[in-house]
Model the fold of this input.
Amino acid sequence: MDPELNLIDDIDKAIYDYEHNTPKKQVQRQNYGKYHVSTYDMKKKKKKKKKEGHPFLITIIIIIIIIIVFIFKMFIL
Done:
């Protein structure tokens, strides 16, 4: 058998395998102990909800301001 024909058959088989056997998203898998962790999942970041200030901190500041105002009123009056 001609080596060129054999090579062409191998290339055709490789192209067919690539088109029919690869998943839509190719995910590189790495073996960490027992678990298969995909690098795609590792790269995906969880969206964090932005907290608008610290409500606990704001209430403490307000209470301190009220106490200071009362102390000034006590000294002035």
The radius of gyration is 34 Å. Residues 1-41 form one domain. The CA atoms of residues 5 and 11 lie 10 Å apart.
